[in-house]
Every structure is written in structure tokens, then in C-alpha cells.
Amino acid sequence: MNQIELSVPYDNGYEPDDYMMQEDEWDRDLLLDPAWEKQQRKTFTAWCNSHLRKAGTQIENIEEDFRNGLKLMLLLEVISGERLPKPDRGKMRFHKIANVNKALDFITSKGVKLVSIGAEEIVDGNVKMTLGMIWTIILRFAIQDISVEETSAKEGLLLWCQRKTAPYRNVNIQNFHVSVTPD
């Protein structure tokens, strides 16, 4: 039995490239925006300090002050209420990597996937990786476990942001990834 294959092009009105665009291409400009990065540094530093003050310390520069892993480990102990393994007290690179790895292992043990974030990036002061790690910590330890009236914390926070910004004509928050302001 012979089969005849008919080739009929499917046209839904979209360009094939619309489906092929990778998500990281959508917000590349936002990710490289120095003003955005500065705001994230300021916000995340304030969040970290609000917890580190409970242990009698704070950070000034988010990508520098977590490089040796000591304050990162302390932050995790404060926000989780759990003890982490004893930190290495040496000042050499391998001591710093060991400490950051202890912190990252702790985060991973809480069921958090750390995609592309390694101890070396944090020790080297990679600001984007450090900010990504802190955002992951915030999501896991400050937002994820909260729920009100069957709404997840993330959804609740989005709703709160939408309500607070509703009076502003040029603000339209749709998600925590990218929000667009009307022209």
C-alpha cells in the first residue's frame, strides 16, 4: 500500500521566528541595564542587611562581602534558623570556595535548584551570579512558604504590587520577569 504525503503549509499568521526566539533574548536589554543592576544591588543589600543585623553585622557591597562565604553562611543561618557546617577560616581561594560551597549545598538541600551558579562565580565577585543567588534565596526563604487564602506568596506579592501601582498611569506590572510601560 503506497502512502501519498501531501505537504500543505500551515499558516497561523505568525512568523516561524516568533516561536524560535529564546526567552533570554526577550529581556537581554533589561539584564544588561546598569540602572536595573544598581537597583537590584541596593534592594538585595537592604534585604540581606535586614537579616544580618540580627547577628550583629551587615554588608556594604553585595558581590564583595559574600566572596569568602562567611557572611553568606551567616545569612542562611539567620533566615533558616538552622546551623550550617563550620566554616573554613583560611583566607586562600580554596577556603573561600569551600565556604561558598557549604552555603550552596545548604540551599540545594532545601530543594532549590541553582542553575549555573557555582562557588567560583561568587568567590570571583560575579555580580549577576551573586544577585541571582540572592534572588533565589529570597524566593525560597522569604516568599515561597508564605500563602494567604490559597494564594501563593509570589502571586500575592504580584497582586500587591499591581494594587499599589494601579493609580499610576504608566505602570502595568504583569509579572516579575518583565513589565512594560505603555507609550
Automatic annotation (TrEMBL):
Pfam families: CH. Residues 38-142 form the Calponin-homology (CH) domain. The lineage of its organism: Eukaryota, Metazoa, Chordata, Craniata, Vertebrata. SUPFAM superfamilies: Calponin-homology domain, CH-domain. Gene3D superfamilies: Calponin-like domain. Keywords: Actin-binding, Repeat. Transmembrane segments: none annotated. It comes from Cyprinus carpio carpio. GO terms for molecular function: actin binding. This is Actinin, alpha 2b.
